[in-house]
Amino acid sequence: xxxxxxxxxxxxxxxGIGYGIAEVLSNDGATVVVADVDEPAAEAAADDLPGPAxxxxxxxxxxxxxxxxxxxxxxEYGRIDVLCANAGIFPSAPLEELSVDDWDRVNDVxxxxxxxxxxxxxxxxxxxxxxxxxxxxxxxxxxVGYPGWAHYGxxxxxxxxxxxxxxxxxxxxxxTINAVLPGNVRTGxxxxxxxxxxxxxxxxxxxxxxxxxxxVGHAVAFLASDRAGYITGTTLVVDGGQTLPESQLALEExx
Length: 255
Ligand code: NAD
Hints:
By secondary structure, the protein is of the alpha/beta class. The chain is built from nine helices and seven strands. It is 46% helix and 16% strand. β2 (31-36), α2 and β3 (53-57) form a beta-alpha-beta unit. The termini are far apart. The relative contact order is 0.15.
């Protein structure tokens, strides 16, 4: 399995899961473009990566911006092999207080952002008849729910509908498009919720530990590799078994 010598874009790559993806791809020999709306953070992230890397500022909700990103990468490296459409936001709001602005913002970044990132890279992937596209969805929405995240869950489920049709449309070239579904992953934001919260989360995960950004990165690296060429339009759950127990009782059985 290899992404060696690939040119890989990671949106939202400046922090959290995106940085974990960038780090795994970089360790595996890819040249990584850290693309993020937070440009200084993207530059710092690119500097920290072990292999060749550059930073590009992008707002994935703007078509001009995603097109400029793809152009900049092709100007610099000549092609785009891998796109990890990972940028996402997850502000919490109870359903009865959820505003249209909250709804639009989450769906703009998570769904429209993935669509625009894919659309901007596709012409260059077609030129070389090769591409590996991996979206970061979530277990929240496609598989389970969590109070406060109705809009977020809807956006993450919508990403899978997009993947299934997009995969058919690009299947005539050697271009695949898949999604990873992370469970609870230890990123800065989650750490801020405190040890007590993290302990309770751990108790609900059969593997007994939260995921790391690198855990997600390894799943993405597989789908982004040349060996995953016959896998398209599908999902890979990376949750330590979190979505498996049919009830809390199932976990207590094995305590
Ligand atoms: P994070 O906030 O650490 O990282 C998100 C990155 O996206 C940030 O660097 C941010 O600047 C960037 N970003 C935000 N809006 C952008 C925009 N408009 N254009 C370009 N970049 C933008 O969050 P994270 O936890 O690493 O989440 C990354 C992805 O993983 C998201 O899609 C999220 O929904 C998904 N996810 C996270 C978890 C988790 O437990 N952390 C679980 C499941 C799925």
